[in-house]
Amino acid sequence: MEVSSSIFAINIHHCSSFFLGLLLLLASALSLANAKTHYHDFVIQATPVKRLCKTQNSITVNGMFPGPTLEVNNGDTLVVNVVNKAKYNVTIHWHGVRQIRTGWADGPEFVTQCPIRPGGSYTYKFTIQGQEGTLWWHAHSSWLRATVYGALIIHPPEGSSYPFSKQPKRQTALLLGEWWNANPIDVVREATRTGGAPNSSDAYTFNGQPGDLYNCSSQDTVIVPIDSGETNLLRVVNSALNQPLFFTVANHQLTVVGADASYVKPFTTSVLMLGPGQTTDVLISGDQSPSRYYMAARAYQSAQNAPFDNTTTTAILEYKSSTCAAKNCSSNKPIMPPLPAYNDTATVTTFTKSFRSTGKNFVPTDIDENLFFTIGLGLNPCPPNFNKSSQCQGPNGTRFTASMNNVSFVLPSNFSLLQAHHQRIQGVFTTDFPANPPRKFDYTGNVSRSLFSPVAGTKLYGLKYGSRVQIVLQDTSIVTPENHPIHLHGYDFYIIAQGFGNYNPRTDPSNFNLVDPPLRNTVAVPVNGWAVIRFVADNPGVWLMHCHLDVHITWGLATAFLVENGVGELQSIESPPEDLPLC
């Protein structure tokens, strides 16, 4: 059901003349007059799902795995009523949506809301503002997002077209995922009990299907149609829980045109790398001999000596032309593409450095908050009351942990952080998250064991409305260096630089890109390296920043920003909805 929106606000800055202002006013009014409100019902429920010859009672939305694809236009509003008929607490996060003033709809459990308890419900309502491309939604409670996820496609405003030289004839969302021959909640609970690393997944998937290279899977392999001569848009999402992934298509080049619902200057590549949480939009042309070609994805594994799922998932790009029909292409064995080596950081670096944003950029230049966050793993000693053989199965009888600036983030359990902030409830969190590491050290060198054990706490960092923020995100070699996909809720940010080794504040700023840096919501911080991001804190609320490898956020690799209200209603967070779940 869709209804036209009747409420809109228009604000025009810096018009050079009355007539220009009038034209902009009319254009904005026309665009917003076409905006719609989309209503959806999500029922969280247990559903039998058979993969790899085995049936699991998986948690799904509306009995679908993956869940439903939501399609909107820029400027539209979504109203999604979530009813929890499963046995677990659940929330839904709308990954990458700015949620301007609507932080109560962001979704991370105990951050912006208490969970929806079994038998409960909650309605998420928010408007898409100034974003176009591919985002996605997923559960943000424990490891439920292993099966509770789906695509969120944002088209240009009605009557507008894509800023591509050739408009795509077809569009296909490709969600890359991970599958366990077990209940993912049991997997993470067992790891939490033992203190060791969780079991690796048993398969990767395209739109929930493992593909031809796995047992009992070939009959359901995803088919992606293409015709000779046409150009199609592939919307690739890394929905995997814990694994960055390479993606490629046999014999076809990919033209990257967008990422994280922002357009980029087009560039051509044969391979993508997406960290969990990231999206990439690519154009693909039907310029090869009509046949069948494998699309393939497998792990990019940057951590040293860490177990991982080394299998390969496939879908099939299948030509539908009359020539192919005459040749009976559907019976042809698909052509397999080469894939980078699992640890091919050079290919990742080349790909990552190719992103440049389009259009007018608003990169902050004068910085109010200059922050430096170390990120990485850690090891806690076995507590005296724990059984060392069964509860301390990390390296040398320890328990895994993770941190930012030596603080391992602990979620509250009686209130959400946003609720505690809004109601001024004391004792739920503090605002003393350090702006810099408590101790300076050789971050990517041989780190002293005295730095392996972080301090646990619910520490937030406070930001004034409108402050201009720069964050250096520095990987560390504590336990093992690793490529970390760091996601910031409620914001897009500019990635102005990346590099390897320890960030040098004297020399590295000379390489900052302040002209056309990519605008993302998730940055893949290089293994044994660093990334610098900038944004303006123009969205009041409490916003989680965390590693999107779910095993790492489970261990505490997170923090949150508390952004104060500005002046007046339009710079203040909305009041909480009446049906906001209680803890």
Notable traits:
33 strands; oxidoreductase; mainly beta; 6-stranded mixed β-sheet; globular; 7 helices; 583 residues; disordered N terminus; single chain
Detailed description of the structure:
It is a single chain. The chain is mostly beta strands and 583 residues long. The protein is 10% helix and 37% strand. Pfam families: Cu-oxidase (PF00394), Cu-oxidase_2 (PF07731), Cu-oxidase_3 (PF07732).
Proportion of residues in helical segments: under 10%
Strand numbers in spatial order across the main sheet = 11-10-13-18-15-16
Structural class: mainly beta
How many beta strands in the DSSP annotation?
A: 33
Query: Beta-sheet strand percentage?
Result: 35-45%
- What global shape is seen? globular
Radius of gyration based on Cα positions:
23 Å
**Low-confidence runs:** 1-28
Task: Name the average pLDDT.
Answer: 93
User: How many individual helices?
Assistant: 7
Gap from first CA to last CA: 32 Å
Sheet of most strands:
6 strands, mixed
Organism: Salix suchowensis
Family: Belongs to the multicopper oxidase family.
Signal peptide: 1-35
Subcellular location: Secreted, Extracellular space, Apoplast
